[in-house]
Amino acid sequence: MNIGILGSGIVGQTLGSGLVTNGHKVMLGSRDAASTNAIKWAETNDAQHGTFSEAAAFADVLFNCTMGAFSLEAIKLAGEGNFRNKILIDVANPIDFSRGMPPRLTIGNDNSLGEEIQKLLPETKVVKALNTINYELMVNPGQLNNGHIDLFICGNDEAAKITVTELLVKEFAWKRECIVDLGEIKHARSTESMLLFLISLTMKYGTFKNGIKIHRC
Amino acid sequence: MNIGILGSGIVGQTLGSGLVTNGHKVMLGSRDAASTNAIKWAETNDAQHGTFSEAAAFADVLFNCTMGAFSLEAIKLAGEGNFRNKILIDVANPIDFSRGMPPRLTIGNDNSLGEEIQKLLPETKVVKALNTINYELMVNPGQLNNGHIDLFICGNDEAAKITVTELLVKEFAWKRECIVDLGEIKHARSTESMLLFLISLTMKYGTFKNGIKIHRC
């Protein structure tokens, strides 16, 4: 599968490396095709790098790993047409740390970044996923509670969510029973706003590696 | 201990009944002293009822169990002076269901109801607690995962948080190691916004009885 990753930071690099290891062709997309990060990553991983537009055009499936405050601009730079009929896994969070800790959301409450991306790309199957978990755990959830931690996904296209679930299970060893489909993309409000809570936990415990297990009766 | 509860709905009634059972004197406060709910509850539980003001004046420790959108008004009706030097355990969430599901927060992101109450009552020790859990679980957490679910508290007064922790452990059988002090009252932003997520879970599973266990490494 050809996979395009928007964003050449540590999240995009980690997901990309995991996918290359599993035999996929991966292109890391940056605003600037001469991104030092992306060039080094591509050399190390025997993979490709390019502009946002090149990565989107190359891909069958895309990951949005840009900074949340910049994601909509990144998608516009990539060209909306390059996303048509594809699955876009939105990993970003619209978090703003500029006013101190705890941070705030730039989009939230009765809206979400996931929804805004879906509005911008009506012919794309946007699936919100992996945004509630640290990048090291994204590709290795077994580090926590023997992998018995929950991952929350949402999106409007049922088939796309099944595809993403299979990808998470197969590529990154998520337990199928721990992938919780919350419903339509509007539930991205829930998982994005959970970042406020997860950052409170990080401030308390000094680790980003927190995971949630839901119990119910 | 004399305990005053603001709000005579099911949350206030449930906490009140638990505290009466354990030998405390409890007064349930309502906007209207002739509240049918409160009168019936007081008769059934051999306890007291009164106005918000009477309940606040009566109490050594208070619980705010009013609807979040109404909490600040309820406290003003109770008279700010009646809260001076007391602990107020804020159980409310500023949730607005009027625009459909999922709901929205009337206060959120870079502010919270807990913080607004602390600002209104600067001489009161406000501790946010129990707002992330269904009322039946508040007084009986053992129903879920043998009681191994986490409860998140926050507030500016360290001694008050210790008192509240002891109360939760002793009165409602919360496990001490599951009570997570997130820090200052500003972390109420985290636990109140978590309601968006908890309501998504309720919409999915059809039960309000959801609990969270955090794992970390």
Short account of what is shown:
The structure is a homodimer of 217-residue chains. Chain A is an alpha/beta fold and 217 residues long. In chain A, 38% of the residues lie in helices and 21% in strands.
Which fold does the CATH topology of chain A refer to? Rossmann fold
User: How much helix, percentage-wise, in residues of chain A?
Assistant: 25-40%
Low-confidence stretches of chain A: none
CATH superfamily of chain A: NAD(P)-binding Rossmann-like Domain
What gyration radius of chain A follows from the Cα positions, in whole Å?
Answer: 16 Å
Tally of domains of chain A: 1
Largest sheet of chain A: 8 strands, mixed
**CATH class division of chain A:** Alpha Beta
Strand content of chain A: 15-25%
Instruction: Report mean pLDDT of chain A, rounded to a whole number.
Output: 97
Distance between the termini of chain A: 40 Å
Task: Note the run of SSEs of chain A as H and E.
Answer: EHEHEHEHEEEHEHEHEHE
How many β-strand runs of chain A?
11
Description:
The structure is a homodimer. Chain A is an alpha/beta fold and about 220 residues long. Chain A has one domain (about 1-205): Rossmann fold. Chain A has eight helices and eleven strands. In chain A, the strands form two sheets. The first copy, chain A, has an eight-stranded mixed sheet with strand order 3-2-1-4-5-8-9-10, with helices on both faces. Chain A has a two-stranded antiparallel sheet with strand order 6-7. The interface of A and B includes residues 187, 196, 205 and 217 of A. Strand 11 of chain A pairs antiparallel with strand 11 (about 210-215) of chain B.
